[in-house]
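Retro notes, structure queue

What went well: the backlog is down to a handful. What didn't: a couple of records were mislabeled last round, so from now on we paste the full input next to the output in the thread. Example, using Glycosyltransferase family 4 protein from Paenibacillus violae:
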Amino acid sequence: MAKMLFIVPYAKCYLNFYWDLIESLVQDGHRVTAVAPDTDAEVALTAIGVRCIRIPIKNTGINPFYDIRSVYYLTRILREERPDILCCYSIKPILYGALAARMARSRRVFVTVTGLGYLFTGRTWKQRLLLPLVSFLYRFAFQHCERAFFENPDDLRLFKQLGLIKRNNTTIVNGSGVNLDKFTMTGNRPVISQVPLTFILIARIIKDKGIYEYIEAARILKAKYPAVKLSLLGPFDSNPSAISKTQVAKWMEEGVVNYLGEAADVRPYLRDSNIFVLPSYREGTPKSTLEAMAMGLPIITTDVPGCRETVIQGFNGMIVPVKNGGALAAAMERFILNPQLAEVMGTNSRELAETKYDVHKVIGKVRDMIQI
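Corresponding output:
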Protein backbone atom coordinates (compact mmCIF):
# COMPACT_ATOMS: atom_id res chain seq x y z
CA MET A 1 0.00 0.00 0.00
CA ALA A 2 1.20 3.50 -0.85
CA LYS A 3 1.74 6.55 1.31
CA MET A 4 0.18 9.50 -0.51
CA LEU A 5 0.32 13.23 0.16
CA PHE A 6 -2.04 15.78 -1.41
CA ILE A 7 -1.58 19.57 -1.58
CA VAL A 8 -4.49 21.91 -2.41
CA PRO A 9 -4.91 25.72 -2.28
CA TYR A 10 -7.69 25.58 0.33
CA ALA A 11 -9.13 22.75 2.41
CA LYS A 12 -12.64 22.82 0.94
CA CYS A 13 -11.11 21.50 -2.29
CA TYR A 14 -11.02 18.12 -0.58
CA LEU A 15 -14.74 18.31 0.14
CA ASN A 16 -15.88 19.86 -3.13
CA PHE A 17 -13.58 18.27 -5.72
CA TYR A 18 -11.47 15.36 -4.50
CA TRP A 19 -13.51 13.66 -1.81
CA ASP A 20 -14.46 10.62 -3.91
CA LEU A 21 -10.86 10.07 -5.01
CA ILE A 22 -9.44 10.30 -1.49
CA GLU A 23 -12.20 8.14 -0.03
CA SER A 24 -11.53 5.42 -2.61
CA LEU A 25 -7.81 5.47 -1.79
CA VAL A 26 -8.47 5.19 1.96
CA GLN A 27 -10.94 2.34 1.43
CA ASP A 28 -8.28 0.46 -0.52
CA GLY A 29 -5.86 0.75 2.40
CA HIS A 30 -3.58 3.54 1.20
CA ARG A 31 -2.26 6.04 3.76
CA VAL A 32 -3.38 9.53 2.80
CA THR A 33 -2.14 12.87 4.14
CA ALA A 34 -3.99 16.05 3.20
CA VAL A 35 -2.11 19.36 3.22
CA ALA A 36 -3.96 22.69 3.10
CA PRO A 37 -3.66 26.26 4.47
CA ASP A 38 -6.76 25.93 6.67
CA THR A 39 -8.71 23.36 8.67
CA ASP A 40 -12.16 23.65 7.07
CA ALA A 41 -12.15 20.00 5.99
CA GLU A 42 -10.20 18.51 8.88
CA VAL A 43 -13.13 17.00 10.78
CA ALA A 44 -14.52 15.23 7.72
CA LEU A 45 -11.11 14.01 6.52
CA THR A 46 -10.02 12.78 9.93
CA ALA A 47 -13.29 10.84 10.26
CA ILE A 48 -12.37 8.65 7.27
CA GLY A 49 -8.77 8.15 8.37
CA VAL A 50 -6.92 10.94 6.55
CA ARG A 51 -4.10 12.74 8.33
CA CYS A 52 -4.28 16.54 7.99
CA ILE A 53 -1.40 19.02 8.00
CA ARG A 54 -1.82 22.77 7.88
CA ILE A 55 0.69 24.83 5.92
CA PRO A 56 1.08 28.55 5.13
CA ILE A 57 0.28 28.91 1.44
CA LYS A 58 -1.81 31.51 -0.38
CA ASN A 59 -3.18 30.73 -3.82
CA THR A 60 -3.68 34.42 -4.66
CA GLY A 61 -1.24 37.29 -4.47
CA ILE A 62 2.54 37.41 -4.72
CA ASN A 63 4.57 37.99 -1.57
CA PRO A 64 8.14 36.68 -2.08
CA PHE A 65 8.84 36.26 1.63
CA TYR A 66 5.58 34.43 2.30
CA ASP A 67 6.02 32.23 -0.77
CA ILE A 68 9.61 31.32 0.19
CA ARG A 69 8.23 30.38 3.59
CA SER A 70 5.63 28.19 1.88
CA VAL A 71 8.30 26.33 -0.10
CA TYR A 72 10.37 25.87 3.07
CA TYR A 73 7.44 24.33 4.98
CA LEU A 74 6.47 22.11 2.06
CA THR A 75 10.04 20.86 1.76
CA ARG A 76 10.20 20.11 5.47
CA ILE A 77 6.87 18.23 5.37
CA LEU A 78 7.99 16.14 2.40
CA ARG A 79 11.25 15.26 4.10
CA GLU A 80 9.42 14.26 7.27
CA GLU A 81 6.55 12.40 5.62
CA ARG A 82 8.51 10.83 2.74
CA PRO A 83 5.39 10.02 0.66
CA ASP A 84 5.53 7.45 -2.11
CA ILE A 85 3.29 9.69 -4.23
CA LEU A 86 2.76 13.47 -4.17
CA CYS A 87 -0.31 15.01 -5.83
CA CYS A 88 -0.51 18.79 -6.31
CA TYR A 89 -3.63 20.67 -7.42
CA SER A 90 -3.96 24.26 -8.66
CA ILE A 91 -1.34 26.91 -9.31
CA LYS A 92 0.75 27.46 -6.18
CA PRO A 93 0.57 23.87 -4.92
CA ILE A 94 1.93 22.85 -8.34
CA LEU A 95 4.63 25.52 -8.59
CA TYR A 96 5.86 25.33 -5.01
CA GLY A 97 5.03 21.66 -4.48
CA ALA A 98 7.20 20.64 -7.43
CA LEU A 99 10.05 22.84 -6.20
CA ALA A 100 9.81 21.42 -2.68
CA ALA A 101 9.59 17.89 -4.06
CA ARG A 102 12.82 18.43 -5.96
CA MET A 103 14.61 19.66 -2.85
CA ALA A 104 13.17 16.85 -0.74
CA ARG A 105 13.98 14.30 -3.47
CA SER A 106 10.42 13.10 -3.78
CA ARG A 107 10.36 10.95 -6.90
CA ARG A 108 6.75 10.33 -7.88
CA VAL A 109 5.06 13.71 -8.37
CA PHE A 110 1.72 14.25 -10.14
CA VAL A 111 0.21 17.67 -10.83
CA THR A 112 -3.28 18.68 -11.94
CA VAL A 113 -3.90 21.97 -13.76
CA THR A 114 -7.41 22.96 -12.69
CA GLY A 115 -7.48 26.15 -14.78
CA LEU A 116 -5.14 28.89 -15.90
CA GLY A 117 -5.87 31.39 -13.15
CA TYR A 118 -5.70 35.15 -12.97
CA LEU A 119 -2.25 35.64 -14.55
CA PHE A 120 -3.18 33.96 -17.83
CA THR A 121 -6.56 35.62 -18.34
CA GLY A 122 -5.73 39.35 -18.41
CA ARG A 123 -3.34 42.02 -19.64
CA THR A 124 -2.63 44.23 -16.61
CA TRP A 125 0.93 45.37 -15.88
CA LYS A 126 1.05 43.06 -12.88
CA GLN A 127 0.03 40.06 -14.97
CA ARG A 128 2.60 40.88 -17.67
CA LEU A 129 5.29 41.32 -15.02
CA LEU A 130 4.62 38.05 -13.20
CA LEU A 131 3.82 35.79 -16.14
CA PRO A 132 7.49 35.09 -17.07
CA LEU A 133 8.26 33.98 -13.50
CA VAL A 134 5.18 31.78 -13.30
CA SER A 135 5.94 30.33 -16.73
CA PHE A 136 9.47 29.44 -15.59
CA LEU A 137 8.11 27.70 -12.49
CA TYR A 138 5.54 25.80 -14.57
CA ARG A 139 8.30 24.58 -16.90
CA PHE A 140 10.24 23.36 -13.88
CA ALA A 141 7.16 21.63 -12.43
CA PHE A 142 6.29 19.82 -15.67
CA GLN A 143 9.90 18.80 -16.18
CA HIS A 144 10.09 17.23 -12.72
CA CYS A 145 6.69 15.58 -12.44
CA GLU A 146 5.85 12.07 -13.55
CA ARG A 147 2.55 13.14 -15.13
CA ALA A 148 0.47 16.29 -15.51
CA PHE A 149 -3.31 16.12 -15.67
CA PHE A 150 -5.33 18.79 -17.52
CA GLU A 151 -9.07 19.32 -17.25
CA ASN A 152 -9.60 20.44 -20.85
CA PRO A 153 -7.70 20.22 -24.15
CA ASP A 154 -7.47 24.00 -24.63
CA ASP A 155 -5.35 24.51 -21.51
CA LEU A 156 -3.01 21.71 -22.55
CA ARG A 157 -2.73 23.14 -26.07
CA LEU A 158 -1.92 26.62 -24.72
CA PHE A 159 0.74 25.32 -22.34
CA LYS A 160 2.39 23.49 -25.22
CA GLN A 161 2.22 26.61 -27.44
CA LEU A 162 3.88 28.66 -24.68
CA GLY A 163 6.63 26.07 -24.43
CA LEU A 164 5.79 25.20 -20.84
CA ILE A 165 5.51 21.48 -21.62
CA LYS A 166 8.16 19.67 -23.61
CA ARG A 167 7.59 16.08 -22.48
CA ASN A 168 4.80 13.75 -23.53
CA ASN A 169 3.65 13.10 -19.98
CA THR A 170 0.18 14.67 -19.97
CA THR A 171 -3.34 13.31 -19.67
CA ILE A 172 -6.70 15.05 -20.12
CA VAL A 173 -9.38 14.18 -17.56
CA ASN A 174 -12.97 15.42 -17.42
CA GLY A 175 -12.48 17.64 -14.40
CA SER A 176 -12.93 15.98 -11.04
CA GLY A 177 -16.16 14.33 -12.20
CA VAL A 178 -19.51 14.30 -10.41
CA ASN A 179 -21.00 11.76 -8.01
CA LEU A 180 -24.14 10.62 -9.83
CA ASP A 181 -25.49 8.88 -6.74
CA LYS A 182 -25.32 12.09 -4.72
CA PHE A 183 -26.49 14.48 -7.43
CA THR A 184 -29.68 13.01 -8.88
CA MET A 185 -32.79 14.11 -10.77
CA THR A 186 -35.13 12.96 -8.00
CA GLY A 187 -36.87 15.52 -5.79
CA ASN A 188 -39.57 18.16 -5.95
CA ARG A 189 -38.40 20.43 -8.75
CA PRO A 190 -40.76 23.35 -9.52
CA VAL A 191 -43.27 22.46 -12.24
CA ILE A 192 -42.28 24.59 -15.21
CA SER A 193 -45.84 25.21 -16.37
CA GLN A 194 -46.94 26.48 -12.95
CA VAL A 195 -44.19 28.85 -11.77
CA PRO A 196 -41.92 31.52 -13.28
CA LEU A 197 -38.63 30.10 -14.50
CA THR A 198 -35.71 30.27 -12.10
CA PHE A 199 -32.16 30.72 -13.40
CA ILE A 200 -29.21 30.12 -11.07
CA LEU A 201 -25.51 30.93 -11.24
CA ILE A 202 -23.27 29.14 -8.73
CA ALA A 203 -19.69 30.39 -8.52
CA ARG A 204 -17.24 32.41 -6.49
CA ILE A 205 -18.32 36.04 -6.54
CA ILE A 206 -15.66 37.29 -8.93
CA LYS A 207 -15.77 39.13 -12.25
CA ASP A 208 -14.14 36.27 -14.17
CA LYS A 209 -17.17 34.04 -13.58
CA GLY A 210 -19.21 36.35 -15.82
CA ILE A 211 -21.30 37.77 -13.01
CA TYR A 212 -21.45 41.27 -14.52
CA GLU A 213 -22.79 39.76 -17.75
CA TYR A 214 -25.33 37.80 -15.71
CA ILE A 215 -26.51 41.04 -14.10
CA GLU A 216 -26.68 42.74 -17.50
CA ALA A 217 -28.83 39.87 -18.80
CA ALA A 218 -30.96 40.03 -15.65
CA ARG A 219 -31.74 43.70 -16.25
CA ILE A 220 -32.78 42.96 -19.84
CA LEU A 221 -35.00 40.03 -18.85
CA LYS A 222 -36.54 41.69 -15.78
CA ALA A 223 -37.66 44.62 -17.93
CA LYS A 224 -39.61 42.26 -20.19
CA TYR A 225 -40.52 39.46 -17.76
CA PRO A 226 -40.75 40.85 -14.20
CA ALA A 227 -41.77 37.50 -12.71
CA VAL A 228 -38.66 35.62 -13.87
CA LYS A 229 -36.25 34.71 -11.05
CA LEU A 230 -32.47 35.02 -11.22
CA SER A 231 -30.42 33.64 -8.32
CA LEU A 232 -26.74 33.90 -7.42
CA LEU A 233 -25.06 31.48 -5.02
CA GLY A 234 -21.43 31.37 -3.93
CA PRO A 235 -18.75 32.71 -1.60
CA PHE A 236 -17.06 36.08 -1.72
CA ASP A 237 -13.38 35.86 -2.59
CA SER A 238 -10.00 37.60 -2.29
CA ASN A 239 -9.22 37.11 -5.99
CA PRO A 240 -8.02 40.28 -7.81
CA SER A 241 -11.29 40.25 -9.77
CA ALA A 242 -13.42 39.88 -6.64
CA ILE A 243 -16.80 41.64 -6.48
CA SER A 244 -17.60 43.40 -3.21
CA LYS A 245 -20.46 42.63 -0.85
CA THR A 246 -21.55 46.25 -1.28
CA GLN A 247 -21.95 45.79 -5.02
CA VAL A 248 -23.99 42.61 -4.59
CA ALA A 249 -26.19 44.37 -2.02
CA LYS A 250 -26.88 47.14 -4.59
CA TRP A 251 -27.96 44.54 -7.14
CA MET A 252 -30.25 43.02 -4.53
CA GLU A 253 -31.79 46.43 -3.81
CA GLU A 254 -32.22 46.99 -7.53
CA GLY A 255 -34.22 43.77 -7.66
CA VAL A 256 -32.33 42.17 -10.55
CA VAL A 257 -30.85 39.22 -8.67
CA ASN A 258 -31.39 37.27 -5.47
CA TYR A 259 -28.11 36.53 -3.71
CA LEU A 260 -28.46 33.29 -1.73
CA GLY A 261 -25.16 33.38 0.16
CA GLU A 262 -22.76 30.44 0.40
CA ALA A 263 -23.87 26.83 0.84
CA ALA A 264 -22.05 23.66 1.84
CA ASP A 265 -24.68 21.66 -0.05
CA VAL A 266 -25.89 23.17 -3.33
CA ARG A 267 -28.42 20.44 -4.11
CA PRO A 268 -31.48 22.14 -2.55
CA TYR A 269 -30.77 25.27 -4.59
CA LEU A 270 -30.33 23.34 -7.82
CA ARG A 271 -33.52 21.46 -7.08
CA ASP A 272 -35.39 24.77 -6.75
CA SER A 273 -34.07 26.02 -10.11
CA ASN A 274 -34.82 25.32 -13.75
CA ILE A 275 -31.76 26.47 -15.72
CA PHE A 276 -28.10 26.72 -14.74
CA VAL A 277 -26.04 29.64 -16.05
CA LEU A 278 -22.25 30.03 -15.99
CA PRO A 279 -20.98 32.85 -18.28
CA SER A 280 -17.37 32.35 -17.14
CA TYR A 281 -14.33 33.78 -18.94
CA ARG A 282 -12.38 30.50 -18.65
CA GLU A 283 -12.44 27.32 -16.56
CA GLY A 284 -10.66 24.04 -16.03
CA THR A 285 -13.88 22.03 -15.91
CA PRO A 286 -16.49 23.74 -13.69
CA LYS A 287 -17.69 21.41 -10.96
CA SER A 288 -20.82 23.50 -10.44
CA THR A 289 -21.86 22.85 -14.03
CA LEU A 290 -21.33 19.11 -13.68
CA GLU A 291 -23.46 19.04 -10.55
CA ALA A 292 -26.24 20.95 -12.30
CA MET A 293 -26.08 18.57 -15.25
CA ALA A 294 -26.30 15.54 -12.97
CA MET A 295 -29.42 17.01 -11.35
CA GLY A 296 -31.08 17.47 -14.74
CA LEU A 297 -30.68 21.19 -15.43
CA PRO A 298 -29.98 22.55 -18.90
CA ILE A 299 -26.81 24.63 -19.13
CA ILE A 300 -26.17 28.08 -20.59
CA THR A 301 -22.45 28.78 -20.70
CA THR A 302 -19.78 30.56 -22.72
CA ASP A 303 -17.70 29.50 -25.69
CA VAL A 304 -14.45 29.34 -23.74
CA PRO A 305 -12.10 26.56 -22.62
CA GLY A 306 -13.53 24.36 -19.90
CA CYS A 307 -17.08 25.59 -20.42
CA ARG A 308 -17.74 24.68 -24.04
CA GLU A 309 -16.92 21.02 -23.32
CA THR A 310 -19.90 20.72 -20.97
CA VAL A 311 -22.55 21.61 -23.56
CA ILE A 312 -23.59 20.09 -26.86
CA GLN A 313 -25.28 23.04 -28.52
CA GLY A 314 -29.04 22.54 -28.63
CA PHE A 315 -28.83 19.16 -26.91
CA ASN A 316 -28.30 19.89 -23.22
CA GLY A 317 -28.04 23.66 -23.35
CA MET A 318 -26.71 26.67 -25.19
CA ILE A 319 -23.27 28.17 -25.72
CA VAL A 320 -23.00 31.98 -25.99
CA PRO A 321 -20.15 34.38 -26.75
CA VAL A 322 -18.06 35.36 -23.74
CA LYS A 323 -18.49 38.81 -22.14
CA ASN A 324 -21.76 39.40 -23.99
CA GLY A 325 -24.69 40.10 -21.69
CA GLY A 326 -27.07 40.64 -24.60
CA ALA A 327 -26.36 37.24 -26.12
CA LEU A 328 -26.69 35.66 -22.68
CA ALA A 329 -30.09 37.30 -22.20
CA ALA A 330 -31.23 36.05 -25.63
CA ALA A 331 -30.30 32.46 -24.74
CA MET A 332 -32.08 32.72 -21.40
CA GLU A 333 -35.13 34.20 -23.12
CA ARG A 334 -35.44 31.12 -25.33
CA PHE A 335 -36.27 29.09 -22.22
CA ILE A 336 -38.77 31.72 -21.05
CA LEU A 337 -40.57 31.61 -24.40
CA ASN A 338 -40.41 27.81 -24.61
CA PRO A 339 -40.23 26.41 -21.06
CA GLN A 340 -40.49 22.80 -22.23
CA LEU A 341 -36.95 23.13 -23.59
CA ALA A 342 -35.74 23.08 -20.00
CA GLU A 343 -37.22 19.63 -19.38
CA VAL A 344 -35.89 18.12 -22.60
CA MET A 345 -32.41 19.61 -22.33
CA GLY A 346 -32.29 18.89 -18.62
CA THR A 347 -32.82 15.19 -19.27
CA ASN A 348 -30.06 15.34 -21.87
CA SER A 349 -27.76 17.02 -19.34
CA ARG A 350 -28.15 14.06 -17.02
CA GLU A 351 -27.42 11.68 -19.89
CA LEU A 352 -24.21 13.57 -20.76
CA ALA A 353 -23.14 13.60 -17.12
CA GLU A 354 -23.56 9.83 -16.96
CA THR A 355 -21.60 9.11 -20.13
CA LYS A 356 -18.78 11.65 -19.77
CA TYR A 357 -18.45 12.97 -16.22
CA ASP A 358 -19.19 10.04 -13.88
CA VAL A 359 -16.74 10.50 -10.99
CA HIS A 360 -15.93 6.80 -10.91
CA LYS A 361 -14.77 6.93 -14.54
CA VAL A 362 -12.60 9.97 -13.79
CA ILE A 363 -11.12 8.37 -10.68
CA GLY A 364 -10.44 5.17 -12.58
CA LYS A 365 -8.50 7.04 -15.26
CA VAL A 366 -6.45 8.98 -12.70
CA ARG A 367 -5.63 5.87 -10.68
CA ASP A 368 -4.65 3.98 -13.82
CA MET A 369 -2.19 6.74 -14.72
CA ILE A 370 -0.79 6.84 -11.18
CA GLN A 371 -0.75 3.02 -11.19
CA ILE A 372 -2.34 2.66 -7.79
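Agreed that this is the format going forward. Reviewer comment attached to the example: The chain has a mean pLDDT of 93.
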